[in-house]
Amino acid sequence: MLVFRQLFDATSSTYTYLLGDAASGEAVLIDPVFEHVRRDAALLRELGLTLSASLDTHVHADHVTGAWLLKQRCGSRIMLAEASGVANADQLLKHGDQVRFGHRHLEVRATPGHTASCLTYVLDDQSMAFTGDSLLIRGCGRTDFQQGSPAQLYRSVQQQILALPESCLLYPAHDYRGLTVTSVAEERRFNPRLGGEIAVGDFAGYMKNLRLAHPKLLDVAVPANQRCGQPENEAGLGAEPNWAHLRYSFAGVWEIDPHGLEEHVGDIQILDVREPDEFTGPLGHINGAVLIPLGDLGERAGELAKDKPIVAVCRAGSRSAQATTILQQAGFTEIANLTGGMLRWRAEGHPVEGGSG
Ligand SMILES: N[C@@H](CCC(=O)N[C@@H](CS)C(=O)NCC(=O)O)C(=O)O
Ligand SMILES: [Fe+2]
């Protein structure tokens, strides 16, 4: 079975795509974004997938790729076009290559024109293609920098993308209006720049008069992407919490599991955010836990020490996840959520104060 997820970066309107082969657990990410590497790694872990490679469709001008950082975290190989001339890539791709993940693969098609080294990745059964900025939904990438060429882009789109089966779904690298997917049939009919009877001369005229401002991040993104997203100064990357073994969840919360909490129980403030009758009820509570019900936490957060990490606890782990957000807003930095709450704490046999059974 194919695992497929479409992920979004709201800052640059970039889509990142996760493709996995459930049978083997191998996955690839197309166009990961540097700031979302933690999110993407958490999702891969939650889905039980191993990242074998990250693939960029091109040298992006508007965001920094997550390729290098993913390699540090997941050991994934960095792949993009040979024609990109970048440093730090592990495999340079050419038209006709295949990128395997488990029993599935993506076919590499060269689709230059937005940049000189743009690639489109086509799924093995031609049911989906990842077009980067070569074809956007009812649009296409600009051609006014990074060796862009309207004539080349026209040819690429007609011969490599719109020549795919009509039912093939097309997933772009960006959409600025909130659309998520299109198809070959739709773009052949409705793309105002490249569909219908539009000829290369019409297209070139359109593209020469787009009058777009340069991307805000151009001067930062292009040099960073020429190193596949390796920062010039790597010192800031150590900002991961190290007071316990924590995991960053896809929901954006640092999580600790019962075993990790018990290991550190003496050095941590345990904050129970249930109601008083639950605290003294059948599930009991963790020895030494301070009770502040979630509804009172905003006002009473000052009762907690700032110099000791806090783990928030509730019945099943959802109210306590919200508690971590409230604590963050109140200026606390070392905070985590007990995964699965008291239910999991007890199920795994950790000691309980009060309670029954
Ligand atoms: N305002 C955006 C501009 C983004 C932009 O220029 N995007 C490129 C892709 S890297 C493009 O081709 N856009 C086509 C369009 O906006 O029609 C930014 O500052 O990042
Ligand atoms: Fe682009």
What does this structure look like?
There is one protein chain. This protein has 357 residues and is an alpha/beta fold. The chain has helices at 37-46, 67-74, 150-161, 184-190, 200-208, 218-225, 258-263, 276-279, 294-300, 319-329, 341-347, and strands spanning 2-9, 14-21, 26-30, 50-55, 77-81, 91-93, 98-101, 104-110, 119-123, 128-132, 169-172, 182-183, 247-248, 254-256, 269-272, 290-291, 310-313, 335-338. The strands form three sheets. It has a six-stranded mixed sheet. Strands 7-8-9-10-11-12 form a six-stranded mixed sheet. The radius of gyration is 25 Å and the shape is elongated. The chain starts with a strand and ends in a 10-residue tail after the last helix. 43% of the residues are buried. Bound molecules: glutathione and fe (ii) ion (FE2).
Q: Keywords for this structure?
A:
357 residues, alpha/beta, six-stranded mixed sheet, 25% helix, binds glutathione, binds fe (ii) ion
Provide the fold topology.
Layout: E1 2-9, E2 14-21, E3 26-30, H1 37-46, E4 50-55, H2 67-74, E5 77-81, E6 91-93, E7 98-101, E8 104-110, E9 119-123, E10 128-132, H3 150-161, E11 169-172, E12 182-183, H4 184-190, H5 200-208, H6 218-225, E13 247-248, E14 254-256, H7 258-263, E15 269-272, H8 276-279, E16 290-291, H9 294-300, E17 310-313, H10 319-329, E18 335-338, H11 341-347
Parallel strand pairs: 3-4, 4-5, 5-6, 10-11, 14-18, 15-16, 15-17, 17-18
Antiparallel strand pairs: 1-2, 2-3, 7-8, 8-9, 9-10, 11-12, 13-14
Helix pairs in contact: 3-5
The structure holds glutathione (GSH) and fe (ii) ion (FE2).
